[in-house]
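user: can you give me the structure for this one chain? tokens are fine.
assistant: on it. calling the predictor now.
[tool input]
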Amino acid sequence: MEIEDVSRATSYTTLAAGSDFRHELEIRRSRFITVLRRSPDEDTARSLASNLRREFHDARHHCSAFVIGADRMIQRSNDDGEPSGTAGIPMLEALIKRETSPGVTDLSDISVVVVRYFGGILLGAGGLVRAYSESVSAALDLVPLVQRQRLRLCAVDVPHAEAGRLENELRNAGYVMAETGYEPQHTILRIALADDATVVSEARARLASLTAGSLELRPQGTEWVDVPL
């Protein structure tokens, strides 16, 4: 199924799919608990702060920021009671200025909340900016990331008994596999390719070689696919 996408970007970096990622720092007796979540839309991003307010109900602040979309057009932040500009904006800048490779700042579809337990020592405006920025940056140093690419999907119908072997051979050949489908008579393997006629032609030739010409690729449009870094 072809998925329409009006963005100009064809790739960006995001958090690997899975559970929320947590990291904690103590700065001058205050606890800063950073939680990162992969967030493809604003509802998912905002729900992170809501959930953490319930979990850490006795914390003084639950500051947040998120950036969403392949072109990173949606960017929001919230100081949640900290002095204006000392929490949410530094957190957002830590996301949007993060280099995912030398000279590349393309992190998106990610939300972050920093829960602060006040330790009794005032940090001042500059200290708060550094603390919130450092909390997010330290978490990003450890978090698993993937590249999300808009790729051309092609499918091949494979007898169930042969699907596992063929999938392994395609992976070993360097192809990125998308979601597998299952029908009563066959398994549907999907290959994610660069949206380039030459690349697609080469994939057809490789499949023909692996299956003695018995199977063929059919186009299925484009889709965003996670590619390991």
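assistant: here you go. The helical segments are 42-55, 88-96, 124-142, 160-172, 197-210. Residues 147-228 form a domain with the Alpha-Beta Plaits fold (CATH 3.30.70.240).
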